[in-house]
Amino acid sequence: MSPEPKWTPRGFEAVRGRKAQVLARPEAVGWVRFVLEGGRTLYEAAAAQPDAFLLQGREPLYVLPTKKGVRWVVRHYARGGPTLPLLGDRHLRFGSFRPFHELLASEEARARGIPTPQVVAAAVYSSGPFYRADLVTVFVPGADNLAEVLFDTTRKGIGGAVERLDAFRAAGELIRQLASRGLRHGDLHAGNILLRWQGAAPTPLPVGLDRCQVMPEGVEASPGPMYRRLRRSLVKWERLTGLRVGDREWDTLERTVTG
Fold first, then answer.
1. What's the order of all strands across the beta sheet hosting 143-145?
2. Would you identify the CATH topology of the domain 143-258?
């Protein structure tokens, strides 16, 4: 079965280059064509752009300014787990392409009232039975991921107990909203929850939707797998940093998820 999309999603244009397939919004089509004509990937072009800045993390991201003042985040799909030494950043051409699946899941999440960074372009570069991939999304200013808020002592958000409880409530509310609107995030770890601080409480935004399962309208997903995945992630961060999640914080997260 071909992993290529059978249609171009509404609001996107298909752009092709040598062994490259990109779905891009109109505002990104010119840049995408320029990059592909130069024989580079979107991530390579972002890395070479002088006015881009690098966001360090589990997967390094490049943030690009645009002529309209909106900034874009360019991410390269890496691999983890035991297959890493063998495949590197390559993925098998089986099932759906990761960036195309993430694009469709992101569009559906936004349509169902779940705020998530808007996808600008999804790119696949094929080579035999494998492919590499990039994703471009709109940059969300003033946002930190949950791991940074809870476990990075150099950041402003680590300080107050009230802020930490707000972060746990936001994460729990996100899980509850995803489940009630028929979305099951396949890898909801602490790095895949952005918190945008506006006023007293943060707004949670899910990212990393390439493994998100979308149920038909009106069908709810189970919150349990997402909750357990997040707990495992937080426990791992406890081990890595030596910082602890308090009993009240665990209780706040669980009570918010279950309502």
1. 143-145, 193-198, 201-206
2. Transferase(Phosphotransferase); domain 1 (1.10.510)
Express each pLDDT in 70-112 by its tens digit.
Answer: 999 999 998 654 444 556 678 887 778 999 999 999 999 999 9
CB 20 within 8 A of CB 34: no
Q: How far apart are CA 190 and CA 253, in angstroms?
A: 13
- Is residue 251 within 8 A of residue 258, CB to CB? The reply is no
Domain coordinates of the chain in residue numbers? Answer: 13-138, 143-258
Q: CA 224 to CA 188: how far, in whole Å?
A: 11
8 A C-beta contact, residue 15 and residue 33: yes
Instruction: Please give the pLDDT value at position 155.
Output: 59
Pairing state of beta strands 71-76 and 119-127? Answer: unpaired
CA distance 160 to 158: 6
244 has pLDDT over 80? yes
Distance CA 150, CA 158 (A): 6
The residue type at 46? A
Bridge partner list, 240: none
Type of residue at 122: A
